[in-house]
Amino acid sequence: MSALETIASIKAASTTSEKTNSIERLLTLVTTDYTALELVGSNVDDVLRFLAQLCRQASSDDQDCAQLQCMCVRIFKSLASAEVGVSILIDTGACDLLLDLVSQEPDQQQKFSLPNSELVDSNLSELETVQTLWYLSSTKFFETSSQLHQRFALVASILVRTNAKSVGKSEILMIALKIMMNITLLKSARPFLLQHGFEETTAVLGIGPDVPSALKEQEQALKVIYNMSADPAVQCGMVQRGLPKSLLPIIQFHHGQMESAEERSGFAKLSHTATKTLQNVAYHKDAKLLLIQAGAVQVLLEVVKRIICGSQPTGPGTGQETAADQALIAVAILSSIAVNQDAKIELVRHGIVKPLVALVEWAIDTPFQQGPTNDRGRPRERFQEPTG
Predict the structure, then answer these.
(1) Neighbouring residues of 193: CB distance < 8 A, sequence distance ≥ 6
(2) In this predicted structure, what is the pLDDT of residue 38?
(3) Lower CB density within 10 Å: C or N end of the chain?
(4) Could you state, in order of their start, the residue ranges of all structural domains in the chain?
(5) Burial class (CB in 10 A: 0-12, 13-18, 19+), 360
(6) What single string gives the DSSP state of each residue in 230-263?
(7) Which of 47-56, 102-111, 325-334, 361-370 is least confident?
(8) Torsion over CA of 137, 138, 144 and 149, rounded to 10 degrees?
(9) Is the confidence at residue 338, as pLDDT, over 60?
């Protein structure tokens, strides 16, 4: 049966079961040969609008309706994975449908929802819906669709919040963070994430090192925060909304206490990125005193003292290779804060002088060794634009 005949049979079907069978045939056409839908011409828009409407009308507690909705989502997912299908999904309302499906809070009275997991394989419902949104957010078309940025940020924040308790187990949580990552690559969209998603993302960071299974999610969440921190437009807002409270425990934690080399190495990198993130926000003139008030000075001095006292763990998997660089960044942050006239007095009160003198003495007495990155001693760029 051709694509045209399949679409006609969907519209002509009198029962949900008949519609589902026809939609399943259409799914087969789309997943095996996308051109089958392209050949339909203007009818593509028409049929996708029709499918989106069917999904909205489907009862999530009916077996046939649940299967129908899953088939529709899989068709949308297949189209989203092809660049040429993105604009069609947005223009026909299919993208809005997908956003609506996953944006409803658990305690809301839902007019329509994802299929009941007891009726269909859960992999055919929420996960595939979120994957489709991730594909959409990864395209060039999404970059130019500014009206979608705020909506995607809001939906991603809901997904992170509702799946945070499943950290280490939830693929949806990781994908939601990847959607946020895509949004941070768009400079104009970063303020949306400060409004919707920032607190949820820092909450993932706040899970703490005592949950090693959360390390991958924490790394992804920190990438989102780091990318945001490169933008002067949101730096002060990030500090005001409690960024130091999330970053400082990560920087302060002595990862040598962790059991496996993999965990120690992973957390050392996490701590290093957290320090770089703090460096970015410290450049903002209104953030300097806020960082002092949040306790950043004491934590940064601890990083410096670890190098001087030799308390930094050594050996494979300890993150030793990043420790010296992290200490340099810590000094750079303190230097940046000291630019503020009022902050100078506060830094002295917090005991900054002795550790810095000791660091200079340590540096004089320590033979220089070229690091693996070949960049020790080079001046740092003021801001590092995100690279994804």
Answers:
(1) 153, 157, 180, 183, 184, 201, 224, 228, 234
(2) 60
(3) C
(4) 231-388
(5) exposed
(6) T-HHHHHHHHHTTHHHHHHHHHH--GGGSSSHHH
(7) 102-111
(8) 30
(9) yes
